[in-house]
Amino acid sequence: MISTTKNTIDQTKIFDQVKDDSCGAIISFTGLVRDHNSKGKVEGIFYEAYNEMVEEILKNIEKEVFKKWNIKKFIAVHRTGDLQVGEISVIVAVSSEHRKDAFEACSYGIENIKKRCPIWKKEKTQFGNEWIEGVKISE
Amino acid sequence: MNLLEYATLKIRLFGILREKMDSDDLIISIHDTSISLKKLRKYLEELNPSLGLNEINFVFAVNKVICNEDINVKSSDEIAIIPPISGG
Lengths: 139, 88
Fold this sequence. Notes:
The structure holds 2 protein chains of 2 kinds. By secondary structure, chain A is an alpha+beta fold. Helix content of chain A is 32%, strand content 41%. Chain A has one domain (2-131): Alpha-Beta Complex (Aldehyde Oxidoreductase, domain 3). Chain A is built from 3 helices and 9 strands; from the N terminus they run βαβββαβββαββ. Chain A is globular and about 50 Å long. The mean pLDDT of chain A is 96. By secondary structure, chain B is of the alpha+beta class. Chain B has one domain (7-82): Roll (Ubiquitin-like (UB roll)), CATH 3.10.20. Chain B has 2 helices and 7 strands, in the order βαββαββββ. In chain B, β4 and β5 form a beta hairpin. The radius of gyration of chain B is 13 Å and the shape is globular.
């Protein structure tokens, strides 16, 4: 399962979906909205995505991890819209027979989401709302 | 260039650019059936200085793929300006 969503990400549900009886390992990465940045308090984050392109890139990332590692299931979901401090912004979960494959595939998944997915965030702080200066998208 | 032909391009905007223009897209007309992304960049910079495109390290996506600016785009293409990203 790969997608963007406006809805709250349910970590337990994701765990149940990625779990498989043939697998001895589940590795997941969960990104959360932090309550501060380098300048002070953060009250929340607005996430905007080019949804159709993100879904295409997530499909490619999914193909790549299945090609590179011996994994059973791969889930990647990114939130959009207004998020409060502590809410889940992104989750990548991978199951595999042995842990090494799931560790590496999960790491590849989140790193490539951050480098390749057209998603932008705007922090809400005590000084106002500010778009985060990002990095040039990688192909 | 054929002066009898023209194309209308819809360019999708996101993040800070969408907010600056208060619009999800820019609609522009060109006096040709297609234009290179390199020319389109220059055209947009001149046409919309308020967007501040020359200050942003952006790239174009065409039909949801990041593209080299030597390619030409036409009205049927889905064109988007992708400012620096910050997901995760």
